[in-house]
Amino acid sequence: MSKVLIIGCGGVASVAIHKCCQVSDVFTEICIASRTKSKCDKLAAKLAPTTSTKITTAQVNADNTDEVIALIRSYQPELVMNIALPYQDLTIMDACLACGVNYMDTANYEPEDTDDPAWRRIYEARCEKEGFSAYFDYSWQWAYREKFEQAGLTALLGSGFDPGVTQAYCAYAAKHEFDQIDTIDILDCNGGDHSYPFATNFNPEINLREVSAPGSYWENGHWVEIPAMSIKREYDFDQVGHKDMYLLHHEEIESLAQNIPGVRRIRFFMTFGQSYLDHMRCLENVGMLSTTPILFEGKEIVPIQFLKALLPDPATLGPRTKGKTNIGCIFTGKKDGKDKTYYIYNICDHEACYKEVGSQAVSYTTGVPAMCGALMLLTGKWNKPGVYTVEEFDPDPYLDALDKYGLPRSESHAPVLVD
Ligand code: NDP
């Protein structure tokens, strides 16, 4: 019996909203609010005849804390699900604190304007201190820990697949499979084909920023940073087959390094086809991935935002995408004094997702964990005051919910390891 405000109505939010509407006994009322209200209205009209969840919609610019506060005060939700963009994480957290409401999101904070001198000073000091140069990190949101604790509120960070389910897999392995985890390899494989020469599976700006950045991994207590795409491996993924994958920096490595005691190494690999990499390199070389505004015919434009306008909207890839995703974690470590390996992963079929909720599997594998994270908070399973990432909670009810609502786990106790 809960009232939830969902901010954002893009690819991921649309799946999460479909899923909330399948669990109407918990999500009794939802308000879908986004910058473009017409998208919220369209989705609400589609879902209303299929669900007993009461759906309303609203317009909000979540960059503006006061607008979010006004919306929360008028709607009075128990939880705000931030499924807009990482740029809005802090403004929405501020609004939740001001109104005494729990918070969750699917990606950690990163600024829209990476040329902002005030932000850049802090960023450069962090690069120096920590040893990785990604624009996003947890420090901004961890800085809210005390405020959420004092307010008696919970903020759940990063409840998508990766971050999100991958951390629950780590917590599960630590709880049930190992006495000591030595290494974690997170493997994110998308074996889907949408037949466009180039498109990104989620927000192009966020996606291209992430994959064009230097890679990094955690080893023996510190970060090792490497040039973008310079570590490549091949892996034979269950139900997908052989794929090339590349080591990337990824946000959950940062929190796992703190929360998995004694872990020696954590790496993240994502699969990319050659055509994707060639397009990305070319776009980068001509300056199209830049976030620095340029003057074009008297008007200021940001190259990566212009590129976003040209590329296919990820939300439209659903009907064209065939194949499967396979995302999971491979562990090495010890149990009862003996060496042990373990692989836990999910396989998701693009066409089946489209049939169920009208979206491809990349949105689906993020939107379902967003709903399941909200379910944990709304049913009292994951409530503790403060700011937490997924591995800091009991993984069992979350993985049970994922099994039930569309992302069942698979396991292997003798996986092929990544060298
Ligand atoms: P989309 O670009 O498809 O959707 C973003 C939505 O947020 C749109 O509805 C957009 O509105 C809205 N929005 C943007 N800015 C504002 C604003 N200032 N105020 C209100 N609404 C706003 O993104 P995705 O659905 O692909 O991604 C959503 C989130 O999920 C991102 O944070 C992304 O990083 C994260 N993600 C996490 C993954 C994981 O595994 N953890 C994997 C994939 C994505 P409008 O329509 O007006 O543009």
From TrEMBL:
Organism whose genome encodes this protein: Butyricicoccus porcorum
Domain Saccharopine dehydrogenase NADP binding: 4-156
The protein, known as: Saccharopine dehydrogenase
InterPro entries: NAD(P)-bd_dom_sf, Sacchrp_dh-like_C, Sacchrp_dh_NADP-bd
Xref: Pfam families: Sacchrp_dh_C, Sacchrp_dh_NADP
Annotated Saccharopine dehydrogenase-like C-terminal domain residues: 160-407
Xref: PANTHER family: CARBOXYNORSPERMIDINE SYNTHASE
